Every structure is written in C-alpha cells, then in structure tokens.
Amino acid sequence: MMKQHNKLNQNDIIGVILAGGLSSRMGHDKASIALSTDDDLDLLGKTCKLLTETGLDVWISGRENKALNLFCFPDAKKGLGPLSGIVRALELSQNRACLILSCDLPFMDQKTINALIECRNQRKQGTVLTIYVQKETGYPEHLAAIYEPESLPLLKESLEKELLKLNRIIPIDKQERIYYNSEDSLPFFNINYPADLEVARRIIRSL
Q1: What residue numbers does the annotated binding site for GTP cover?
Q2: Burial grade of 80 (CB within 10 A; 0-12, 13-18, 19 or more)
Q3: What is the pLDDT of residues 29-70, one digit of tens each?
Q4: pTM for the complete prediction?
Q5: Annotated binding site for Mg(2+), which residues?
Q6: Which residues bind Mg(2+) (predicted)?
C-alpha cells in the first residue's frame, strides 16, 4: 500500500474517491484525463495525491487501479450512481467517517478539504453529514462532503428503494453546512462535458 502521510492525524476519516461513473456525457473516461501536456497525473491521480497529502487513508470506489497502489472496491450496486459508492465505502469503513470526493474536480485544493475536516470536527451532536453549500443557489456539494457512519442506514434504505438523489436523503437538521460564495466556487468546478474540459484547460493556462 502507498505510504500515507499523517499531517492531520485524522484516523477516524477515510478519503474515498468516486471514480466509477460511466462518463457518458463526456464520451470517454473522465478519470484518465490529463488537463495539460505538462501534467504527469490524470484527474484520478491528482485527486489521490490531494487526499494523500491531506493525511488521510485513501480508497478508490468503482474501479481498480493497480498503478496507484491503493485499496479499490466496487460500488454496492453497479450503475446506480454515486450513492452506491458512498454506501459501499461506509459499509467497509469499520465505523470511520468517509470524506467523499469526486474524481472530476480539477481545482479542488487542500485549503477547501482542510476547512471541511475542521468543520466536521466541530460538528454539533447528531450531525451525520458535513457538506459545502453554494450560498446564492443553495446547491449542496454532496461529492465533496464527509459522511458519518450514522448516515449509513438512511443512505442504504434509499439505495435499496433506488431513490438516488443525494439531496433528498439526509435531513437538513442532521447536516453541518459550510456556505461558500460564487466567487469562491472554483474548487467545485467539475468536468462533465467536453466543453467543461476546455474551460478547465483555459483556466489552467490563465493561472
């Protein structure tokens, strides 16, 4: 297994990268995309590096990648979206929380991850989800969030009923929310379509 740093000593949190999507809107595998010719890592590799440097044990959901030398596991039910990967991660986590991160967030950074962990560590009693929310739109970032083991029954019940929309599963009173403004939204920019990829590459060239 890859040697893990332990800068934050977050032994009760596992970093879980969701990499099992079909990439149907992109037309080819998103996880294997490199954003520039100078990049020696694809999107999956960059996400693994980010979480490893944060000090977390890192798992990969939905695919096997021997080159990264990390624990990989299949989704609970294939073809049922991110909920299936989150459920399986929590089932395997042995009562540890799971920091869930999609592999298609090219500008996610350590500052944003650290703030999420810090908020989670100060959560109120009964909280089962710590999550970023876009202030202007109210949009919750379910694929950049920390799920507690206690969230598993709610998530599993929804998966069994194939009620797959994450924003309808966990009540707001069980959430710790971090609100961010639109000008701070770059870490949450995700790549779904070829046009998104071109935008990401233009942003990188401008930095």
Answers
A1: 18-20, 30, 75, 104
A2: middle
A3: 788 888 876 777 899 999 999 999 999 999 999 888 777 889
A4: 0.91
A5: 104
A6: 104
